[in-house]
Design goal:
This is Ubiquitin-like domain-containing protein. The structure is a single chain. It is built from 6 helices and 16 strands. Strands 8, 9, 10, 11, 12 and 13 form a 6-stranded antiparallel β-sheet that branches. Strand 14 and strand 15 form a beta hairpin.
Length: 298
C-alpha cells in the first residue's frame, strides 16, 4: 500500500505507533506518580496476574528498576526476557529514566516475555553470582531466600524455606470476611500475619491487629480463631520445583543451573481445614453386652 508523501506507509497488520509517538507524546516536567503495566501474553482472564498498578513511591525512576520490579510482581523466571513497550516503542536502555521516555502519570505500558537463548543464559550465569532465589507458591505469598550460593543443596534450601514459613507464624483464611470499617477485609485463601510477630498480637479497634500479605492492608480481626487457621507446614510436606522439574535434596543449585534471583516453585500441603463440628464421641458399649448377657436365644 502506497502512502501519501510525508506520511508513514501502512503495511497489512502493521502498527505505526512507534513511528508517530515522537510527535504525539509531549515531554512532562515531573516524573509519573502512577503507571499501569499489562502483561501482553498473559493467558486470558484465568492468569494469576495480568495487570499491576504502581503509585507513589512504588513507581521506579528508571526503565531498569521498573524491569526488576516487574520480575517479582509478575513472578517471572530469569530464564525469560522481559520487554517493555510504551506506545509501541521498545524500552531497551535500562539507564533511561521514565521521564525521558515521556511516561507521565496514568500512562499504561505493555510487558511481553520471551525465552532466553542458551548463550544468553550462560552469560547471565557468569555475570551474576548466585546469592538469592525467589520462592513462588499457589498457597502462600511469594518471598525471597538469601544467603544461598551455587554450592547450596536443595535440602538446605528446603530447610530455609520451612524456617521462613514459621518466622513469624502466618495464618490462612478459611472463609471470606466483610466486616465493618474498622476491621480488616480478607478473602478465603489470603495469608495473614499478626502485627509484631507471634503471641496474641496487638489489639486494635476491630480486634487483633493483623497484616493481609496479599493486598498489603492492615486492620483488626475480631475473632481470628473462627475464620483463620495456622499455616503450620511440616518439612516433609514441602517440595521444590525449578523450570518444571522436581528438585532432589542431594542436588546443588549449580547442578540445576539456577540463576541469581531466579524463581523456584514451592509445593506444600494445605493446613488441615477448620472443622466447626466437634468430634463425635465413641458409641457406648451395649450395657447388656458389657454384663455378658446377650439377647435370649429362641
Amino acid at each position: 500500500m502506497v502512502g501519501e508523501p510525508g506520511l508513514p506507509t501502512l503495511s497489512k497488520g502493521a502498527v505505526v505507533f512507534s513511528q508517530l509517538s515522537d510527535g504525539l507524546l509531549e515531554a512532562h516536567p515531573t516524573p509519573p506518580e502512577r503507571i499501569v503495566v499489562r502483561r501482553h501474553n498473559a493467558m486470558g482472564a484465568h492468569a494469576p496476574l495480568a495487570r499491576v498498578e504502581l503509585a507513589g513511591d512504588e513507581v521506579p525512576a528508571t526503565v531498569g528498576e521498573l524491569r526488576e520490579k516487574l520480575y517479582a510482581l509478575f513472578a517471572i523466571s530469569r530464564r525469560q526476557r522481559v520487554d517493555l513497550f510504551f506506545w509501541g516503542k521498545r524500552l531497551d536502555d535500562d539507564a533511561t529514566s521514565l521521564l525521558d521516555c515521556r511516561i507521565s502519570t496514568n500512562s499504561e505500558l505493555t510487558l511481553a516475555t520471551s525465552a532466553r537463548t542458551r548463550a544468553e543464559l550462560a552469560l547471565l550465569r557468569e555475570a551474576s553470582a548466585l546469592r538469592r532465589v525467589r520462592i513462588c507458591s499457589n498457597k502462600v505469598v511469594s518471598f525471597t531466600i538469601g544467603n544461598v550460593s551455587r554450592e547450596t543443596t536443595v535440602a538446605e534450601l528446603r530447610r530455609a524455606v520451612h524456617a521462613h514459613l514459621h518466622a513469624p507464624l502466618s495464618y490462612l483464611a478459611i472463609e471470606s470476611w466483610k466486616p465493618d470499617a474498622d476491621s480488616l477485609v480478607f478473602h478465603r485463601g489470603d495469608q495473614l500475619v499478626k502485627e509484631g510477630g507471634g503471641g496474641g498480637g496487638k489489639k486494635a479497634k476491630g480486634g487483633v491487629r493483623m497484616h493481609n500479605l496479599h493486598n498489603r492492608t492492615v486492620g483488626g480481626v475480631a475473632a481470628p480463631e473462627q475464620s483463620l487457621v495456622e499455616c503450620r507446614v511440616e518439612l516433609a510436606d514441602t517440595a521444590l520445583f525449578y523450570a518444571g522439574q522436581a528438585m532432589a535434596d542431594e542436588q546443588t543449585l549449580s547442578e540445576l543451573n539456577v540463576l541469581h534471583d531466579d524463581l523456584v516453585f514451592l509445593d506444600i500441603k494445605r493446613p488441615p481445614p477448620f472443622d466447626p463440628q466437634p468430634t463425635a464421641a465413641p458409641a457406648k458399649a451395649d450395657k447388656k453386652a458389657a454384663n455378658g448377657k446377650g439377647p435370649k436365644k429362641t
